[in-house]
Amino acid sequence: MLLEKFYKGKKVFITGNTGFKGSWLTLWLKYFGAEVIGYSLPPPTNPNLFEILDLEKDIVYIVGDVRDIVKLKESIKIYRPDIVIHMAAQPLVRYSYLYPKETYEINVIGTLNLFEAVRECDSVRVVINVTSDKCYENKEWVYGYREEDPMGGYDPYSSSKGCAELLTSAYRNSFFNPKDYGVKHNVSVASVRAGNVIGGGDWSEDRLIPDCIRALSKNETIKLRKPEAVRPWQHVLEPLSGYLYLAYKMWKEPTKYSGGWNFGPEDDDIITVEEIVKLVVSIWGKGEYSIIRNEDFHEAALLKLDTSKAHFYLKWNRAYDVKTSLFETVEWYKNFYQGKISMFDFTIEQIKKYVRTAKEHNILWATE
Prior knowledge:
Layout: H1 2-7, E1 11-15, H2 20-32, E2 35-40, H3 49-52, E3 60-63, H4 69-79, E4 83-86, H5 93-98, H6 100-119, E5 126-130, H7 156-174, E6 188-194, E7 197-198, H8 208-217, E8 222-224, E9 230-232, E10 234-235, H9 237-252, E11 259-263, E12 270-272, H10 273-284, E13 289-291, H11 308-314, H12 322-338, H13 343-360, H14 364-367
Parallel strand pairs: 1-2, 1-4, 2-3, 4-5, 5-6, 6-11, 7-10, 8-13
Antiparallel strand pairs: 9-12
Helix pairs in contact: 4-6, 6-7, 8-10, 10-12, 12-13
């Protein structure tokens, strides 16, 4: 497989490697044979995927905060990575209302610190900043947002991600301009935006699937705040496959593939919160939910991404529809709570199964 050959032996520096998406990415890169250097605070929840899979084994794990520019610079200088994937973030909307200053410091100043560290390390060839679909100025229209649409954000979290996108654009124009590649620098910079990701091993607060699983595992009623809200649901491996393939293409053609990229599901995978919960309960085998209206903070009702750019230039498509994504997710949690098998082996098998499905769908990153 092309990606496995490419990443074998590559040094990949991941900020936020102890988070949900960061843990899945770390595992996948370990499976490819990459040298992973993780820079992150300790895992944010208990339980957490990072410790369940014992991901600290066979990687370099630096306990560090992206707000600590001195330690971040030193870490990148010492390990001299080839590729940097910036995932460290305060990722929760509700939390951002409670702690807006912290949210901006991590998501904006942390991103600035990352780019400053890259500027001082001549080994780095590719930088991918992982933001969010919420970075766009959301007008709640039925059309998907395109990469060139305005950045914005009603709440502190969404605004901070819009700021991080503007910062990325400014650094790409000012210090890593594609026009100056090979003359003034050798770095290709991209930002990536994905919708609501689901998958095994997420126990974050105020996220639909973790909230469902917590309730179901305790035989409690699932509580829904906004059942009619529509989100672009996708399995966590979908955007990660896009990030990994994009980094490969940036390495090969650095000026062509820099910029912003959306990775999201198809229109028929964009369904309501209540529909998602009904499917989760059905797959779990039992459970109930109730609607608890909570209007104490603004929450978007409709958000979609246009992924035409990734389809056209990367030939990237989703491998799983929303029902398959939910089935794989719930199966992961069911096996975890049963406690009868190795979750490391099971999670690796889920990655292998996803790759096989991508091949069956003739998705380019899996077939080249």
